[in-house]
Amino acid sequence: MPIDRILAARLDRRSLLGATAAAGVSIAMPPALQSRVIGGSSPLASFAGKRGMILHRARPPLLETSMDVFDRGVFTPNDQFFVRWHWAGIPTSIDADSFRLTIRGAVGASLSLSLAELLRMPRVELAAVNQCSGNSRSLFQPRVPGAQWGHGAMGNAKWLGVSLLHVLDLAGVRAGATAVRFGALDRATSADRGLDFDKSLSLDHARDGEVMIAFAMNGEQLPLLNGFPLRLVVPGWYSTYWVKMLSDIEVLDAADDHYWTAKAYRIPAIPGADVPPGSAGFPTTPINAMVPRSWVTNFAEGDRVPFEPTLSLRGIALGGDSGVSRVEVSTDGGNRWQDATLGEDYGRYSFRQWEAQAPLASPGPISLQSRCTNQGGVVQPSVPIWNPSGYMRGNIETTEVVIA
Fold first, then answer.
1. Which positions fall inside the Moybdenum cofactor oxidoreductase dimerisation domain (predicted)?
2. Distances (CA, A) of 226 to 231, 240, 367
3. Around Cβ 283, how many Cβ atoms within 10 Å?
4. What gap in Å lies between CA 369 and CA 173, rounded to an integer?
């Protein structure tokens, strides 16, 4: 069925309220389960609209994708796509008929757009990885506070929506504007009043023609927990900028002084965002473009593998803000490397699958590694970085297995 008919069928008010009501039940997880997870066991848990997720926190939801999902395909299924919210005040019901996206501020004419009006606009589609700034934070040494993600706070989807540039042009950006701020429907708790989540981009970035107001992912409307009815898509940048339940776009004529851009999600203002453990007082800058990463996905830590003269390896890579140009693999902890064969290219912001046949000399423990080089010539480093927020991990990852 064409996407127009799918969206038209699913955006009627009755079916929307039914779906969101079910999701609302899932957000209110029993306190006993929250306590058990916070205690550190991180069991696989079920959320309405989600399956097989690793539950880090129920309210607000932090759900991680299990690594075996990334071995099954280059695109991450919607019902297994990771979830990260900052505040528990997430709407559990949205009326698609009355919902409006507001465009205001330093514009020639403020706009209030319905979903139906957005669906009639010219559409754009691209594949892009959405990755949390703190993905893999649990591997930082020394440990740092924050959600203790493994590698699964990420996902890859085909996003469908309207170019932000098109909408800004409809409103008419006034001379002197410098930035664009994006607000959403979720709300801070009463104790944190005034800190509702919003983020901003420079005007040039917002108007680059790639930033998108998405209403669908992987051929379906956005799941509630992934930002229904609209979310911002900022290809190549970390997901803190991918504002979910987007409802307000404000064009600014001065730098954004709100908390989430001026104070939060900042990294050391040095190449690689790497400082000595325990450092403080260093200059910072807002986190921005992602770095290259890669993983072996067809083996897990501690697997025992029957000996064969050749070991089949498979995995995924992302180039960050440019495409994947090369992936190499090693079975001896990085002493020797061989090229992997790259899979289909879905664009420079997408995951790219790879595979390799690695010779083995004998049984015993081995260290599996992969190393990505992006089209900008940036190569994954062998040494991990450190910063106090646990952001931007991008070093070569190792999977220890035993050839038996």
1. 287-392
2. 8, 13, 35
3. 8
4. 48
Q: Which residues pair with 124 in a beta bridge?
A: 161
Structure tokens at 199: 């983020």
Asked if 180 and 131 count as a contact pair (C-beta separation under 8 A), the reply is: no
Question: How far is residue 369 from each of residues 32, 112, 296, 297, 306, measured CA to CA in Å?
Answer: 39, 50, 7, 11, 19
Residue 2: per-residue pLDDT = 47
Residue of 85, 288, 128, 124 lying closest to 202 (CA atoms): 288
The residue type found at 155 is G
Structure tokens at 181: 């701020």
- The rounded distance, in Å, linking the Cα atoms of 95 and 16 is 7
Give the pLDDT confidence score for residue 26 in this predicted structure.
31
The residue ranges of the chain whose pLDDT is under 70 are: 1-46, 190-192
Task: Give the Cα separation of 206 and 203 in Å (integer).
Answer: 5
Signed CA dihedral, 373, 376, 380, 381: sign only: positive
Q: Which residues contact 363 (CB under 8 A, 6 or more apart)?
A: 307, 402, 403, 404
pLDDT at 21: 35
Question: Using an 8 Å Cβ cutoff, are 185 and 247 in contact?
Answer: yes
E strand or H helix that includes residue 7: helix 3-10
| Residue spans of alpha helices (H) in 111-256 | 115-119, 164-171, 203-206
Token readout for 96 is 């698609």
Three-state SS for 120? coil
| Tokens linked to 26 | 């899932």
Q: Which amino acid belongs to residue 37?
A: V
**Tokens encoding 42:** 């991180």
pLDDT at 189: 76
C-beta atoms surrounding 77 within 10 Å: 17
List Cβ neighbours of 147 (8 Å cut-off, separation of 6 or more): 56, 57, 62, 84, 132, 134, 137, 153
* Peptide linkage before 229 cis (omega within 30 of 0): yes
Give the Cα separation of 265 and 227 in Å (integer): 20
Buried/exposed 327-351: b ≥16 CB within 10 Å, e otherwise: bbbbbeeeeeeeebebbeebebbbb
For residues 249 and 101, the answer to whether their CB atoms sit within 8 Å is yes
Report which residue type is found at 90.
Answer: I
pTM score of the predicted model: 0.89
